[in-house]
Every structure is written in structure tokens, then in C-alpha cells.
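Changelog-linked ticket: zinc ion example.
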Amino acid sequence: MKIKKDKNYEILETEVLTFKSLIEKNIIEHLLNVGVLDEDEACFGITVKQAAFDYDANIDELFFKSLGHSNYTTKAIEAFKNLVVLGENDCPECGGVVEDLYSCGKVYRHDYDSEPYVDGQVEYKRCTNCKLEF
Ligand SMILES: [Zn+2]
């Protein structure tokens, strides 16, 4: 699991006086440890607030135990709540597994004996979790 590097994450990086490299690691580890998050597609793309709500966990406590009391500020807790959790894979929205797809092109042949070739085929990708196409 990882955290989307959006503006909320940037705020947290500014507010929290912990090594930047540890912020994401500490949050993910703690949320997985207490069971607020699972390594499961159901958790890909949700916010910390949503994860805590689903699990009936106290957000302030999640914050204290991930990042320490001394880092608790109004700005930091707001940003923390709105962090988006992603899976480890390639989907930009949720971190889900992405599959390569092709639109159907039209198959042409010069004549009966020549190799067929496909025209108008477009490659695109689709997330198997949130169905985003890109
Ligand atoms: Zn996705």
C-alpha cells in the first residue's frame, strides 16, 4: 500500500517534523497493523477518513500513533484525514492492477495469400479495480 502524493500529502510533509521518508511508511504500517487498512482492493483509492469510518476507528488516535502527539496540528490532522490510500500497482486513481486492452481494428488483406494486417487498432489500459480507462 502507498499514499497518493497529492496536496494533502504535501501539507503533511510541511507540517510534520518527521523524516519525510518515514511519513508514508509510518502511516501505512500503523493503519495495516491495527486493521484499518487491508492489502485488499476494497481499500484502494479510499481516504484515511473513510477507512477509519468503516472500521469505527478514532482518527486522532490513528494520527498520534502514526506520527506522534507533537506533530498534531489542525492543518496536519485535516490533511491526514484526506490522504488517499493506493495499492502498489499502476492505476493513477486507486493503485489497482491495470490491464492492456485493444480496441478492435479492422482487418485488411491485400489478397488471399498475403498476411492480414490490422488498421485503426488503439491500445489503452483499464484498471481491473476501479475500471478507469486511460
Ligand atoms: Zn483504479
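Closing comment: Example verified and attached. Residues 91, 93-94, 96, 127, 129-130, 132 surround zinc ion (CB under 6 Å). The chain has a mean pLDDT of 92.
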